[in-house]
Amino acid sequence: THYIKSYQLANIILNKNFSLGSLKASLNFQVNNLWNIEYQVVQASYMPLRNYRIGISFHFNKPNKD
């Protein structure tokens, strides 16, 4: 039998919430595989090296009619 070498990944996420009047939003930036390690989850199937992700989310809140 063959074993895949062990690995340890590190990810980091930075998130900022903000408001513009009644609009609420959050901006995030993520770094995956921070150490840029080559690793495999399945033998001979390499996973991506360091990669980045940026996103923005808008939060809508329906006012109550009470």
Q: What is the residue-mean pLDDT, rounded to a whole number? A: 89
The order of strands across the largest sheet is 1-2-5
Order of helices and strands: EEEEE
What best-fitting shape do the alpha-carbon axes yield?
elongated
Unreliable spans are none
* Measured distance between first and last alpha carbons: 67 Å
> Approximately how much beta-strand content do the residues carry?
over 45%
Largest sheet geometry: 3 strands, antiparallel
- Kindly report the oligomeric state of this protein: single chain
Percent helix: under 10%
The secondary structure category is mainly beta
- Rounded to the nearest angstrom, the radius of gyration is 19 Å
Number of helices: 0
Number of strands: 5
Please outline what is shown here.
With 66 residues, this protein is mostly beta strands.
